[in-house]
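Protocol check, entry for the methods section draft. Step 1: assemble the input record (protein sequence plus ligand SMILES). Step 2: submit for complex structure prediction. Step 3: store the structure tokens unaltered in the notebook. Ligand used here: pyridoxal-5'-phosphate. Step 1 record:
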Amino acid sequence: MSAAGVLRSIPVALPSFGDAEEQALLAALRSGWVSQGPRVAEFERNFAEYVGAPQAVAVSSCTAALHLALVTSGIKSGDEVICPSLSFVATANAIVYAGASPVFVDIDAATYNLSPQAIETAVTSRTRAIVVVHQVGMPAALDEITQIANRHGLMVIEDAACAIGGEYKGSRIGRPHSSMACFSFHPRKILTTGEGGMITTADAALADRLRRLRQHAMNVSDLARHNANTVVSESYDEVGFNYRMTDLQAAIGLVQLKRLDEMIARRRWLAQRYTSSLSSTSWLISPKEPADCRANFQSYMVRLRNDAPVTRNQLMQKLLDRGIYSRRGIMAIHREAPFRSEYWDARLPLTNRVSDTTVILPLFHDMTEEDQDRVVDALKSVGMVGVPRG
Ligand SMILES: Cc1ncc(COP(=O)(O)O)c(C=O)c1O
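Step 3, stored output:
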């Protein structure tokens, strides 16, 4: 409540930065090294150690990470890549950047992640890879999906944009469960560097190629040239990209990484509090972790049952009327112009239903219990007659 007695608005997400991030950013600025340099290298080492991967390669975004992962997996024009439609559009865009066609498959009703059974039926002679998304930080069925991939000789790439710090069967997402896992540091994610991404892998030679490709395929890094005491001339051995992260971003990332476990613990606590507070609201379905996984609760997404007293959009409007921001649940990529077709629409009934009936509630590190109670009260009042507003 503000001093004037007006309820302040509650955002759906908010990054958490403190003095340590400010100091780290200032130190990077003052060092004179603001492009990809020593802080990016340190961020990569610490990130690899955190997730338990031998290698981590920092890039400018998760979309760039996915593109590089597909290119280095040999995906090319004419290939098919299986992925969910229930994801952010970048999952499919990256497949198109590589020249391939996304083949959308439906989801599992409990986790909203790729359904292993649906994958099996979508494999054709042109299928080369599966992009598995850990949606809103809920780990996907990696073992089942990897088994199918191995049976058909397919690469598996994890779109772990939302999944930092999540755990699958006791190990962190990013520890090699697949050939590569791709993370995002966009401000909607738990660890943010403004924009940014990371690829983890067990393969050192692959990591070297990723590092070259992210900087125009130059065969020596700026840092190596800078540190050399003999003249170094670089070469460009293939067509590369400018997908570099800056040291300014990495400086923030290094601090956020130290705070990550604490930030995830806070989210898990708030998520649990939502779940217990909403347990009597029978028309809402709360998220559930599979028994062998730990979600990071990057987002708290609820689904409206068929008997809900309002539609999803009406619910979002009712929340907004009380100064509470929410977001529609995950989009269905096959409904957007570049991917739209009746063919996909007929094959993805659960994706359509979940996309139409889910909503992301406010959840962020500095959310207070009072904020959360306001959201819960607003949800509980929906459908009741004569409940006073405000
Ligand atoms: C599942 C998924 N994949 C990819 C991306 C793209 O990440 P970035 O914005 O870092 O490119 C996002 C971003 O929200 C995402 O949610």
